[in-house]
Amino acid sequence: xxxxxxNFNGNPNIGLYMFASEKYCLVGLDVAAQEIAQxxxxxxxxxxxxxxxxxSMVGVFCAGNSNKLLIPGIxxxxxxxxxxxxxxxxxxxxxxxxxxxxxxxxNDKGALVNEEFSAAEIKAIKDALGVPVKxxxxxxxxxxxxxxxLNKKACLVNTDATQNExxxxxxxxxxxxxxxxxxxxNPFVKSGIVCNSNGVIIGDQSGGPEMAYIAEVLGF
Length: 220
Fold this sequence. Notes:
Distance between the termini: 10 Å
CATH superfamily: L-arginine/glycine Amidinotransferase, Chain A
Radius of gyration: 16 Å
Strand content: 15-25%
Largest sheet: 3 strands, mixed
CATH class: Alpha Beta
């Protein structure tokens, strides 16, 4: 099983509630237990439930690669304690751009980040992830993390991304990009797609052509 089409409590924006890497997956506490079992089958990594900043919107607040999980300074102490117990290697990034998942698109080769990050914040991100960090836009918008999603095989980005932006992503992240939508035309692709190299989870309001294209480009 490499593709799961689902929703969380009737909400097809599953990417808001999940962060996935090659090592583990974090899911908000509001996600039902039966969904957790399905997620494990598809992504083939341990799945842990916790909230970030008191909400289930883990995908909005978290970014990271195989080296480190990035979390915002607004995370609660009990949530940090959960990460410590799970032995997940994390770095707190102190910034007003607390929705790190919406503002950072990264892998084990590089990171594309919102141009509004300060030089000190970019250095903190670079040091934590252990990869080069460049600023940029997707579809001329700053929220690059919300507008793209990737695994080791490919990157999917907003349909309005320019060719220069697509080339910039390839130069930084080392993967080819294709444009797409999810959940019947939503250009904020991360909101409805969660993936790693083992599988992909897609919001169930997506049309058949959207789902087929997403799975094909990501290698499934």
